[in-house]
């Protein structure tokens, strides 16, 4: 009996290959959710890199170099806002549409986006898919270990959380666009152009990206305080995180019903906002290049705006390179912290800072456990917070040393831009636009790691780790 012909074998291969890919994806969603999330973001970046490389995406109709296309794709999907090209003049209308779509896709978050696609692949939201979605609001779930208590979002609420993510994004961006449209008209923008720029700026503020569709960025709107205020509101709503929005939507102003995560996020965010503004006003009031020529009211407002944008917003009215070195250090600290967990902001997150501060305070008072608002924060949460800070600092140190060696640029400028990339902020001293290709690849990798999250990357690498069913003898090394 004759075997299958070459044509028959080829036909079977073509039919079975898509099926094998599909089964591989389904298995990946259940066996390693974190790796699946990283795979999704990587795939999106490669797709958008190809799209940005098309001649139709550039204003002059020529293909964009690979380094610039890749950097823009990473900055867009990771909602960072840094760029190696002039975003207002380099891209065609098609290119700007790609940026608009990309930041909204990236704003959904690594784990939330992977959850939605995993739901499509798996046909239903099973237990592991629910764990994946809940992990976007609590990274401890992505680790695969036991979770003790007080989760931000319960497993039964994951479906509502995903609906809240999609609905809140749409509603908030539409509301921001409606507020921005008349403000753009008052600034001299023609009605047709404003019809496009209003939703664009709305998306860039809520996603905490900070791209501008016109040359000069926000310079034409430096005195339009209503527009700047709307942008600050958009940045704030995007930076507090979808779980907090979910909590506020469910419980409104019933503060006692708010989750501990929501309380810590809102309190820490407000404190950093006003403290940052006060420090910027104090350091820059005599700087003629920034606030020195402004009166008290203008200085106060611009300091508030700068404080809000260094948290992850990315918009800028003053030239960042004109700030005093002391202000750059303060800005770097704020960018390193970033916004809320499961938000469009980056950084180590405000809840990480809050947990670390509470742990230090409890240790100083000699308390055995970390307690706040009538709740106890378990030790595994404290360990994750410490790991996030350590990994974040390590990533920034390696990237700063590498880029400084490549460019031989002033270390202060390199450090600021690297932290801005890691924190997905988008502010720059002007260094990023001049990076050579090799340094831009390093910066792109830094942005990717900052957006995907150190916890997600660690969980992806350690997805196959084994449980240890024994404990070793205790011995205390000298610390401090």
UniProtKB/TrEMBL annotation:
Subcellular localization: Cell membrane
Molecular function (Gene Ontology), one example: monoatomic cation transmembrane transporter activity
Keyword Ion transport: yes
Main location: membrane
Topology term for the membrane: Multi-pass membrane protein
GO biological process: metal ion transport
GO CC terms in record: plasma membrane
Sequence intervals crossing the membrane: 36-54, 97-121, 161-181, 225-249, 261-283, 333-361, 384-406, 441-463
Name used for this protein in its record: Trk-type K+ transport system membrane component
Organism phylogeny: Bacteria, Bacillati, Actinomycetota, Actinomycetes, Micrococcales
